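Suppose a classmate hands you a notebook page containing two proteins, each written out with its sequence and a corresponding row of structure tokens. How would you begin to make sense of it? This section walks through that situation. The first entry is reproduced here exactly as it would appear on such a page.
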Amino acid sequence: MSQRDEREGRILYEGAKFDILLKTIEGRSGAKTEKPYIHHPGAVVLIPETSHGGLILIENRRFAVEETILEVPAGTLHWGEDPVEAAHRELEEETGWRASTLVPVMTYFSAPAFTNEVMHVFLAQDLQRGVLNLDDDEEIRVVEFSREQADSLLTDGKVKDGKTLLALALWKNLRED
């Protein structure tokens, strides 16, 4: 169950990972209208960098687009969960790797026109083998890319996922500093 108060809107749908609410807003003219939005606990996005300077990504089957797409590991926070704890959990669950070092990179809204989801991006370094622990509904294959291969992912058209494109650009920018 989500953590929210009544000012956030009337519940249309209450789910395990997000709720859909209807919120009354006042326009410039003073007229009131109702707008639906997704109330979300937030998510973590991980940029797992190998000791050789490459990246660990995942091929993830996404039912909404009916495709297996290349992504950085990521996951939804549990309501009230600390993003650092979620980052450690999601990295190991989806890739089978653990990070000794998590560096906060950026926090952003995923799609503020219809959700309040906040994405917390972390650079995951000093990786050690952990235990892959996929959810029952996940179809994931872990793929390691060299630095050169990972650099080409921004321009070769193989990545269609927005959070992954941003993560790759951030990773490249971090290395140029």
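The notebook's second entry, a different protein, reads as follows.
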Amino acid sequence: MLELVAHLRMPFPATQIEESWEAIVTSVQQTRKLKLADILYDFFESPEDPSGHPMTGLNHVAFYLGDYFKEGEVDRWHEFLMDSKEKGHLVSVDRGPSYISPKYYGTPGWWFSVKGYDGFVIEMFCCRHYGPWIKLPPQIRQNLMSHKAISINYKDQVWPTLKRFEKRNNIELIAFTQDDDMGHTYGHLRNNANHKVLELVSV
């Protein structure tokens, strides 16, 4: 259950949008049942007691949709999400260019963020099938562009917690943002042994 959407193949699901979305929703339901200790163990691959850190629970889940070849594929996915919002299935839909994929993996990409009526946020990422990115095995690509995000009690606790985790073997802090446009403070950690990513965020 710790895999996000393991059966989604690397090609962007431009023609299986509804089926892929249903798989994401099902995976979200399963992931939201996980305990914090399970999420941390999946990332670190060793026990980590969440009670020793200022964590409150799962904040959101992010999925890698796959590699796209043409921008029109990404546009169609966006149109599907916007249509879902128009039908009243989603509260909000946001989209923007990826910061991580060109900086670290040599290819452009996009992110999507949607919020359901229960307030839970689902993020989705996709990268262009281009450059050094496509030389990485599919499972590694999926791990690098997917993540689970854990809520931190207070903004001033995000950075110290990130730095504490970074001291562990194979863990690298790859991004940190303080007080973005929405007032969020967050950072991403990458486990360079299993290529998985964990986000810590305070809203």
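A careful reader of the second entry would note: The chain has six helices and eight strands.
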